[in-house]
Amino acid sequence: MYKSKLAIALFVFFALAKLQAQVTFQPGVRGGLSLSTISEMHANYRPDFYVGGFGEINFTKRYALQPEINYIRQGSNNVARNFIDQDTQTERTVYQDLQMSYLSVGLLNKLKFAQFQVQFGPALDVLLSDNLAFRKTYNDLSFVTGVAYKMPSGLAFEFRFKKGLLDVLDSDYYHNNSNSHYLFGDYNTNVNFQIGISYSFETK
Asked: DSSP string covering 159-193, please?
């Protein structure tokens, strides 16, 4: 029994030592175009930007874990709102651009196939500012997935899709009677596409 426990302990020790020898760390920066909207609304995509930093922890040749912090500007353009004009007692429609900025803290898994990468993981989005009249939550939880092509120089081209999980605004205020083009509902979540570049710094 003692010999078997000793053998297991030695195996775990050498496995961890080998893993530690293989682990490398690369800091980096990223930024680019943010295209976002809010689901189940009468709205257009809002173009804006994102910028951030990350640390890539390479455990093996094929797998890395990447914590990151990003500043992301999101929202929706031309959000239609129907309301009754109290002066004329008629229904009016106005359009407003909704703006939200988040500090997004993510933890992404990266599967690497030569220069191609598949990325996925959760993120916590902390609301920094917005111009919403009524909201249901200040912060958001989201899931991020995407692909990247990384060059030997450390420069990478990224495409990501980021989907919020929480209802972010009160759709009763942005009521709209017309459902001819879009679904209008009560579950209004952030939808975000990111197209940009990143750069990893070499460390010794």
From this structure: EEEEEE-S--B-TTTT-----SSS---S---EEEE
- What pTM was computed for the model? 0.81
pLDDT in tens, 38-51: 988 878 999 999 99
Rounded Cα–Cα distance for residues 161 and 46 (Å) = 15
Q: Which residues pair with 27 in a beta bridge?
A: 55
Q: Which residues contact 12 (CB under 8 A, 6 or more apart)?
A: none
Tokens 């209004």, residue located: 188
Task: Report which secondary-structure segment, H or E, holds 10.
Answer: helix 2-22
Q: What single letter denotes the amino acid at residue 142?
A: S
CB 53, CB 34: distance < 8 Å: no
Question: What confidence score (pLDDT) does residue 13 get?
Answer: 45
Both structure tokens of 29: 């920066």
Six-digit token pair at 194?
A: 């990111």
As a dihedral over the C-alpha atoms of residue 126, residue 158, residue 62, residue 201, rounded to 10 degrees, the angle is -80
Contact partners, residue 44, CB within 8 Å, separation at least 6: 37, 76, 77, 78
Percent of the chain with pLDDT over 70: 80
